[in-house]
Design goal:
alpha+beta
Length: about 160
């Protein structure tokens, strides 16, 4: 009778943690500052001039894999503690704690040593667009550029 309770707890913990996972396939395009000022901050193409380039560290985004793996490991470890209702509670608590730790580990791994660059472009129509990307290989302030699919390129 203990196996069905454990299975139910594992399925419930997995369902809860699965809802926390990010399924957004879109890359990060920068702050929403443009939306507050009426600028279009989407990934559409545009031409303009680089106003500034700022360096920042990686933001440690996660895909949910660390949380899922941590949740499973935590639930399995929690299942080894206690008996009856205490075991079920320990399984759920272990799953939640493992998911939080796993997500944090994944975020730290993704942010480690990664620099991001926020490129501010003044478009030909007078609007500004902030684009965050992982490299600015040959980009300098004052360069004429085009923005295609959320990345800045010289032309």
């Amino acid at each position: 009778m203990k196996a069905p309770h454990t299975l139910v707890a594992l399925v419930a913990a997995s369902a809860i943690l699965g809802g926390c996972a990010s399924s957004n396939p879109q890359p990060y395009y920068g702050s929403n500052d443009g939306y507050r000022h009426g600028y279009d901050n989407t990934a559409s193409a545009g031409y303009g001039t680089i106003e500034s380039i700022q360096v920042s560290s990686g933001d440690g985004r996660t895909g949910g894999g660390g949380a899922l793996l941590g949740g499973v490991v935590g639930a399995l470890a929690g299942n080894q503690v206690g008996s009856g209702g205490g075991r079920t509670a320990a399984t759920v608590a272990g799953g939640v704690a493992g998911a939080v730790i796993g997500n944090r580990v994944e975020a730290n791994r993704n942010a480690e040593g990664q620099q991001m660059y926020m490129v501010r472009v003044r478009l030909d129509n007078g609007e500004y667009r902030d684009v965050t990307q992982d490299s600015v290989y040959d980009l300098r302030e004052g360069n004429r550029v085009r923005i295609v699919d959320g990345r800045v390129y010289r032309y």
